[in-house]
Design a protein that fits this description.
Layout: E1 3-9, H1 14-32, E2 40-46, H2 51-60
Parallel strand pairs: 1-2
């Protein structure tokens, strides 16, 4: 039962988010041989000024052992 959570800078259209969710579902189906009915995708908007503390620190810095693709930036320097 894969559930994928995506955090994005606020401002993407509902169509862009739906397109992303559809692409993620297709990628999960291909990579994990999952049935579409078992896959869910959540997308959360985050204000750019909140990104470092609400996303980067808790999801990247504090969970490096769970990252399979780390970002190439660090907002803290």
């Amino acid at each position: 039962m894969p559930h994928v959570i995506v955090k994005l800078y606020a401002g993407r259209s509902e169509q862009e988010k739906q397109n992303l969710a559809d692409a993620i579902v297709e990628a999960v189906k291909a990579a994990l041989k999952s049935d579409e009915k078992s896959i869910s995708v959540g997308i959360g908007d985050v204000k750019p000024e909140d990104w470092a503390e609400k996303v980067y620190r808790p999801a990247v810095l504090e969970q490096r052992d769970k990252l399979y693709k780390a970002p190439g930036y660090n907002p803290f320097g």
